[in-house]
Amino acid sequence: MNPSQITVKKTAVKTGVHQAVQSGKRVERAVEEETDEVEEDDELANLQASEDLDVSEVIQNMVKNTRAKRASQRNAILKAHDDRVKKTHNNIVMIFDKQKKSAAAIREQHNQRLVLLLNRKAHLEAELSIHLTKLQRAYLAHSQDLQNVLEARARTLEHPTA
Hints:
Helices cover 73% and strands 20% of the residues. It is rod-shaped. By secondary structure, the protein is an alpha+beta fold. It has 1 helix and 2 strands; from the N terminus they run E-E-H.
């Protein structure tokens, strides 16, 4: 082997588990004992690249999970908002329908009262017309009687007989 390619590698023997919390996620790391071994640089580079990929995958998964969680929360908030808007709209429609029915009932009562009063007015006007006609006849009759009395008095004054 070429001395430039030979390196000392520390191999790990898993003796326990260390737990840590990062960004709300539980991450387990193995606690390792190190031993010295000689290996080639390629294997070490592959192992480090593999660990880098694992860390980047974990970070990417965390970012994806965070985005998914935010989207889920946003969707839940939007759905709750839409539900409240629909409920409020339905309540407003119910109140207006109730008000319309109430106003229609009151308007119907007023219309019935108006019809009753108009009928009463028409009846009173008819009675008034009848009484007015009778009064005109009585006036004419009395004025005729008065005319006769005055003519008779005028004749007696013109011809005194005494």
